[in-house]
């Protein structure tokens, strides 16, 4: 059963401001993440010292929270690689 995906307003705003190509690439990966967050084809890693995970899509990073009990993935941030961990 797929996960429900919630995108925080700040992440949604960033996604909408991207070029069409980046937006489509990120959206496709987020959809795949919702279908199977354990897919080895997705570059997902837990963040050290934080309850979040990161999904790598080219130079972009999607920071998300995963709640397996209720099948929800909450996208917290979408940022370029250098910015996201600050």
Q: SSE layout and pairings?
A:
Elements: E1 4-7, H1 9-17, H2 20-35, E2 44-46, E3 53-57, E4 60-67, E5 72-80
Parallel strand pairs: 1-5
Antiparallel strand pairs: 2-3, 3-4, 4-5
Please provide a written account of the structure.
The protein has 86 residues and is α+β, with helices and mostly antiparallel strands. The protein has one domain (4-80): RelE-like (YaeB-like fold). It has helices at residues 9-17, 20-35, and strands at 4-7, 44-46, 53-57, 60-67, 72-80. Strands 1-5-4-3-2 form a five-stranded mixed β-sheet. The mean pLDDT is 93.
Cα-to-Cα separation, first versus last residue: 34 Å
Strand content: 25-35%
The DSSP helix count reads 2
Just give the CATH class. Alpha Beta
Order of helices and strands: EHHEEEE
Enter the CATH topology name. YaeB-like fold
Number of domains: 1
Using the alpha-carbon principal axes, give the shape: globular
CATH architecture: 2-Layer Sandwich
What is the assembly state of the chains in this entry? single chain
Name some characteristics of this structure.
86 residues; YaeB-like fold; five-stranded mixed β-sheet; globular
Structure, briefly:
The chain has 86 residues and is an alpha+beta fold. It is 29% helix and 34% strand.
